[in-house]
Structure formats: structure tokens, C-alpha cells
Amino acid sequence: MGVVDAGCRSELRERQARLLRLHWELTRLGVRVSVRKPRNGRWKLKLRGRRWSETVLCAGAEGTYAYVTAHGRLLGRAEDARHVARILVWMLEMRVR
pTM value? Predict the structure, then answer.
């Protein structure tokens, strides 16, 4: 049981690190963004624009991670944080879900 818990914790830490990397890229581009951990333990990144917001999660397991919106849109691989940040900025400007 302890080995399974350790694996889940390491995955959660990896997802958090990936979201923090995306957070850094978005703040570098000048987007209002926040990262938080709700009660269920899944880290969320929230972007805010004019009358529009988007929630981004890091999904995946076993070394393969991707950025996904709360609506289920796959944004890209977690290794491409800069590219995903540009897509999110475009989505904020065009107000596209």
C-alpha cells in the first residue's frame, strides 16, 4: 500500500511541476494566471481574460503528460509548455473554447 501511495504522490508532484512550468511561461507573456490545489488534490491552472477564463489541468501517467482544458480539449504535450502557452494566449484573445 505504501508503494502505491508513493507512486501517486510522485505523479501529483510531476503534474504540479508541469503546471508551474506553464504558469511561468504564461506570466512571461503577461497573462493573469493562478495555480491552486483544490480539495481533491488535482492541481489546476486558471487563466483570466476580459469576461473569459479557462482552466487547464495536467493529465497523464507513467512519464507521459499533456495539458488539457476542463472542457476536455487537448492542448499539447507537457514538454511543449511554450507552444501551449501561445495557444492559450490566442484562446484568451479570441475567446475560443
Answer: 0.84
